[in-house]
Amino acid sequence: MATSTRHERAAGARAAATGLTLFAAVMLFVAGVLDLFRGIMAIAQDDVFVTTPNYVFKFDLTSWGWIQLFLGLAAIIVSLGLFTTATWARVVGVGVAALLIIANFLSIPYYPVWSLTLIALYGFTIWALCVVQRDSRTG
Fold first, then answer.
1. Exposed, middle or buried by CB within 10 Å (0-12, 13-18, 19+), for 57?
2. In this structure, how many other beta carbons lie within 10 angstroms of the beta carbon of residue 134?
3. 45-73, pLDDT tens digit by residue?
4. Helix (H, G, I), strand (E, B), or coil: what is residue 138?
5. Where along the chain do its domains lie?
6. How many other C-beta atoms can be found within 10 angstroms of the C-beta atom of residue 77?
7. Which among 1, 10, 108, 129 counts the fewest CB atoms within 10 Å?
8. Rounded to two decimals, what is the model's pTM?
9. CA distance 15 to 73
10. Residue 85 Rama label (left phi>0; alpha psi -120 to 50; beta)
């Protein structure tokens, strides 16, 4: 009976790990696509961005667009690795999501509400990738 309970717990842990990894993969993919689009908008110098004259971390909008574009592409690529439950993708996913949180923090004056929304999405992604215990990983 104890062995059966242990196997049921292990199966439940594997299911949770798979579910959280899938959640992180989807969130990283969606947020990466959104950052990719925001990068394209900034490169095109669209008028949807707010300009703040006295911001400490002021960047050229075109340069900022390229940064967002490349980080968005990295997030998309890593999310595809997460769909295969690759261990490298979990580790790199945390790093890419952390970089994107920093990038979105620095771009708050240009697109404030969207930056805060993406910071929350990337925070949930990091949580989902880090909460699974080592012995319950699926790949």
1. exposed
2. 5
3. 766 666 666 666 666 778 888 988 999 99
4. coil
5. 2-136
6. 15
7. 1
8. 0.75
9. 28
10. left
